[in-house]
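Justification of resources, computational component.

The compute hours requested in this renewal are based largely on the per-chain cost of generating structure records like the one below. Each record pairs the submitted sequence with a full C-alpha coordinate output. That output is archived, and it is also reused by downstream analysis tasks.
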Amino acid sequence: MSTTQFSPADRTQALVALLLLVPIPSLGTLAGMVWWPESGVGQILFGISKIWIVLLPLIWRKFVEKRPLSLSAAKDGGWAPALITGLAIAALVWGVFIWVRQLGWVDEQMVRESAERTGLAQRGVFIAASLYWITINSLLEEYVWRWFVFRQFEKLMGGKLAVVAAAFGFTLHHIFAVAAQFDWRITLLASSGCFVGGLIWSWLYLKYRSVWPCWLSHAIVDVPIFIAGWVIIFG
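The structure output for this chain reads:
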Protein backbone atom coordinates (compact mmCIF):
# COMPACT_ATOMS: atom_id res chain seq x y z
CA MET A 1 0.00 0.00 0.00
CA SER A 2 1.11 3.55 -0.63
CA THR A 3 1.43 5.97 2.27
CA THR A 4 -0.89 8.33 0.37
CA GLN A 5 -3.74 5.98 1.25
CA PHE A 6 -3.34 6.98 4.89
CA SER A 7 -4.19 10.31 6.47
CA PRO A 8 -1.76 12.34 8.61
CA ALA A 9 -3.76 11.20 11.65
CA ASP A 10 -3.30 7.56 10.62
CA ARG A 11 0.44 8.05 10.30
CA THR A 12 0.68 9.82 13.66
CA GLN A 13 -1.21 6.97 15.32
CA ALA A 14 1.09 4.46 13.65
CA LEU A 15 4.19 6.26 14.93
CA VAL A 16 2.82 6.30 18.49
CA ALA A 17 1.94 2.61 18.26
CA LEU A 18 5.46 1.75 17.14
CA LEU A 19 7.03 3.80 19.91
CA LEU A 20 4.85 2.03 22.45
CA LEU A 21 5.68 -1.45 21.21
CA VAL A 22 8.96 -1.86 19.31
CA PRO A 23 11.37 -0.93 22.17
CA ILE A 24 9.55 -2.99 24.81
CA PRO A 25 10.78 -6.52 23.92
CA SER A 26 14.37 -5.25 23.88
CA LEU A 27 13.97 -3.53 27.24
CA GLY A 28 12.37 -6.66 28.70
CA THR A 29 15.17 -8.85 27.35
CA LEU A 30 17.84 -6.50 28.71
CA ALA A 31 16.14 -6.40 32.12
CA GLY A 32 15.73 -10.17 32.37
CA MET A 33 18.98 -11.33 30.75
CA VAL A 34 21.55 -8.52 31.02
CA TRP A 35 20.80 -5.91 33.69
CA TRP A 36 19.21 -8.06 36.43
CA PRO A 37 19.45 -11.68 35.25
CA GLU A 38 19.50 -13.19 38.74
CA SER A 39 16.91 -10.83 40.20
CA GLY A 40 13.18 -11.23 40.55
CA VAL A 41 12.83 -7.67 39.30
CA GLY A 42 14.46 -8.59 36.00
CA GLN A 43 12.17 -11.58 35.51
CA ILE A 44 9.07 -9.58 36.41
CA LEU A 45 9.96 -6.85 33.91
CA PHE A 46 10.68 -9.50 31.28
CA GLY A 47 7.26 -11.05 31.90
CA ILE A 48 5.51 -7.67 31.80
CA SER A 49 7.15 -6.91 28.45
CA LYS A 50 5.76 -10.16 27.03
CA ILE A 51 2.25 -9.40 28.26
CA TRP A 52 2.46 -5.81 26.99
CA ILE A 53 3.32 -6.72 23.40
CA VAL A 54 0.46 -9.23 23.26
CA LEU A 55 -2.19 -6.94 24.76
CA LEU A 56 -1.25 -3.65 23.11
CA PRO A 57 -2.16 -4.68 19.53
CA LEU A 58 -5.60 -5.86 20.70
CA ILE A 59 -6.24 -2.66 22.66
CA TRP A 60 -4.95 -0.52 19.80
CA ARG A 61 -7.11 -2.27 17.21
CA LYS A 62 -10.30 -1.92 19.26
CA PHE A 63 -9.96 1.48 20.91
CA VAL A 64 -7.63 3.49 18.66
CA GLU A 65 -8.15 2.11 15.16
CA LYS A 66 -11.71 1.16 16.17
CA ARG A 67 -11.79 -1.81 13.87
CA PRO A 68 -13.08 -5.32 14.59
CA LEU A 69 -10.68 -8.09 15.53
CA SER A 70 -10.20 -10.86 13.00
CA LEU A 71 -8.52 -14.25 12.71
CA SER A 72 -6.43 -13.01 9.75
CA ALA A 73 -7.83 -15.70 7.43
CA ALA A 74 -5.55 -16.76 4.57
CA LYS A 75 -8.05 -15.85 1.85
CA ASP A 76 -5.37 -15.43 -0.81
CA GLY A 77 -3.42 -18.58 -0.04
CA GLY A 78 0.32 -18.39 0.44
CA TRP A 79 0.75 -21.91 1.83
CA ALA A 80 3.14 -23.15 -0.87
CA PRO A 81 5.56 -20.19 -0.53
CA ALA A 82 5.32 -20.57 3.24
CA LEU A 83 6.24 -24.25 3.08
CA ILE A 84 9.07 -23.70 0.61
CA THR A 85 10.62 -20.78 2.51
CA GLY A 86 10.25 -22.57 5.83
CA LEU A 87 11.97 -25.73 4.60
CA ALA A 88 14.71 -23.75 2.85
CA ILE A 89 15.55 -21.67 5.92
CA ALA A 90 15.29 -24.71 8.19
CA ALA A 91 17.83 -26.56 6.02
CA LEU A 92 20.12 -23.53 6.18
CA VAL A 93 19.79 -23.34 9.97
CA TRP A 94 20.70 -27.01 10.34
CA GLY A 95 23.67 -26.63 8.01
CA VAL A 96 24.95 -23.63 9.95
CA PHE A 97 24.52 -25.52 13.24
CA ILE A 98 26.65 -28.41 11.97
CA TRP A 99 29.26 -25.96 10.68
CA VAL A 100 29.61 -23.89 13.87
CA ARG A 101 29.64 -27.06 15.99
CA GLN A 102 32.54 -28.41 13.97
CA LEU A 103 34.34 -25.09 14.41
CA GLY A 104 33.76 -25.27 18.17
CA TRP A 105 32.07 -21.87 18.34
CA VAL A 106 29.35 -23.06 20.73
CA ASP A 107 30.25 -23.53 24.39
CA GLU A 108 28.16 -26.67 24.81
CA GLN A 109 28.96 -27.05 28.50
CA MET A 110 27.58 -23.56 29.11
CA VAL A 111 24.42 -24.47 27.19
CA ARG A 112 23.97 -27.60 29.32
CA GLU A 113 24.53 -25.64 32.54
CA SER A 114 21.99 -23.04 31.45
CA ALA A 115 19.52 -25.83 30.68
CA GLU A 116 20.08 -27.26 34.16
CA ARG A 117 19.31 -23.88 35.78
CA THR A 118 16.10 -23.40 33.81
CA GLY A 119 14.85 -26.98 34.04
CA LEU A 120 15.28 -27.63 30.31
CA ALA A 121 17.74 -30.43 31.03
CA GLN A 122 14.71 -32.60 31.82
CA ARG A 123 13.55 -34.29 28.63
CA GLY A 124 9.83 -33.82 29.29
CA VAL A 125 10.26 -30.13 30.09
CA PHE A 126 12.41 -29.60 27.01
CA ILE A 127 9.87 -31.28 24.72
CA ALA A 128 6.98 -29.27 26.21
CA ALA A 129 8.93 -26.01 25.91
CA SER A 130 9.92 -26.84 22.33
CA LEU A 131 6.33 -27.54 21.33
CA TYR A 132 5.23 -24.25 22.91
CA TRP A 133 7.92 -22.19 21.14
CA ILE A 134 7.40 -23.89 17.78
CA THR A 135 3.61 -23.62 17.76
CA ILE A 136 2.37 -20.91 20.14
CA ASN A 137 5.27 -18.50 20.51
CA SER A 138 5.91 -18.39 16.76
CA LEU A 139 2.24 -17.51 16.22
CA LEU A 140 2.39 -14.77 18.85
CA GLU A 141 5.49 -13.31 17.18
CA GLU A 142 3.76 -13.27 13.80
CA TYR A 143 0.71 -11.61 15.34
CA VAL A 144 2.90 -8.91 16.94
CA TRP A 145 5.56 -8.30 14.28
CA ARG A 146 3.64 -8.92 11.08
CA TRP A 147 -0.04 -8.32 11.85
CA PHE A 148 0.59 -5.26 14.05
CA VAL A 149 4.09 -3.82 13.66
CA PHE A 150 4.34 -4.34 9.90
CA ARG A 151 1.00 -2.62 9.31
CA GLN A 152 2.07 0.39 11.38
CA PHE A 153 5.34 0.74 9.46
CA GLU A 154 3.40 0.37 6.23
CA LYS A 155 1.34 3.46 7.07
CA LEU A 156 4.54 5.46 7.54
CA MET A 157 6.71 4.28 4.66
CA GLY A 158 4.80 1.97 2.34
CA GLY A 159 4.89 -1.80 2.03
CA LYS A 160 8.38 -2.43 0.63
CA LEU A 161 10.22 -0.35 3.24
CA ALA A 162 7.92 -1.71 5.94
CA VAL A 163 9.19 -5.22 5.13
CA VAL A 164 12.72 -4.11 6.09
CA ALA A 165 11.68 -1.99 9.09
CA ALA A 166 9.50 -4.71 10.62
CA ALA A 167 12.27 -7.28 10.10
CA PHE A 168 14.74 -5.02 11.91
CA GLY A 169 12.35 -4.49 14.82
CA PHE A 170 11.80 -8.25 15.04
CA THR A 171 15.56 -8.87 15.07
CA LEU A 172 16.53 -6.26 17.65
CA HIS A 173 15.52 -8.01 20.87
CA HIS A 174 16.88 -11.33 19.56
CA ILE A 175 20.31 -9.68 19.30
CA PHE A 176 20.30 -8.88 23.03
CA ALA A 177 18.99 -12.34 23.96
CA VAL A 178 21.65 -14.19 21.96
CA ALA A 179 24.48 -11.84 22.99
CA ALA A 180 23.68 -12.52 26.65
CA GLN A 181 24.49 -16.22 26.13
CA PHE A 182 26.94 -16.52 23.24
CA ASP A 183 29.94 -14.75 21.72
CA TRP A 184 29.85 -12.22 18.89
CA ARG A 185 30.19 -14.85 16.14
CA ILE A 186 27.07 -16.76 17.16
CA THR A 187 25.27 -13.48 17.86
CA LEU A 188 26.06 -12.23 14.37
CA LEU A 189 24.97 -15.46 12.71
CA ALA A 190 21.76 -15.79 14.74
CA SER A 191 20.83 -12.14 14.28
CA SER A 192 21.42 -12.35 10.53
CA GLY A 193 19.18 -15.41 10.44
CA CYS A 194 16.45 -13.60 12.40
CA PHE A 195 16.65 -10.65 10.01
CA VAL A 196 16.40 -12.83 6.91
CA GLY A 197 13.47 -14.69 8.45
CA GLY A 198 11.82 -11.40 9.37
CA LEU A 199 12.21 -10.16 5.78
CA ILE A 200 10.64 -13.30 4.36
CA TRP A 201 7.74 -13.39 6.82
CA SER A 202 7.04 -9.67 6.38
CA TRP A 203 7.07 -10.18 2.61
CA LEU A 204 4.61 -13.08 3.01
CA TYR A 205 2.32 -10.82 5.03
CA LEU A 206 2.61 -8.01 2.47
CA LYS A 207 1.67 -10.39 -0.33
CA TYR A 208 -1.00 -12.55 1.32
CA ARG A 209 -2.32 -10.36 4.17
CA SER A 210 -2.53 -13.19 6.68
CA VAL A 211 -0.34 -14.26 9.58
CA TRP A 212 -0.99 -17.96 8.92
CA PRO A 213 1.43 -18.50 6.01
CA CYS A 214 4.00 -16.47 7.96
CA TRP A 215 3.39 -18.68 10.98
CA LEU A 216 3.77 -21.91 9.02
CA SER A 217 7.14 -20.81 7.62
CA HIS A 218 8.26 -19.54 11.04
CA ALA A 219 7.21 -22.72 12.86
CA ILE A 220 9.10 -24.92 10.40
CA VAL A 221 12.24 -22.82 10.92
CA ASP A 222 12.02 -23.20 14.70
CA VAL A 223 12.11 -27.02 14.49
CA PRO A 224 15.85 -27.45 13.70
CA ILE A 225 16.71 -24.86 16.37
CA PHE A 226 15.20 -27.05 19.06
CA ILE A 227 16.61 -30.23 17.54
CA ALA A 228 20.03 -28.57 17.80
CA GLY A 229 19.30 -27.77 21.44
CA TRP A 230 18.35 -31.40 22.07
CA VAL A 231 21.57 -32.62 20.45
CA ILE A 232 23.69 -30.33 22.60
CA ILE A 233 21.88 -30.93 25.89
CA PHE A 234 21.11 -34.65 25.62
CA GLY A 235 23.74 -35.77 23.12
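The chain has a mean pLDDT of 95. The chain has one domain: 3-234.
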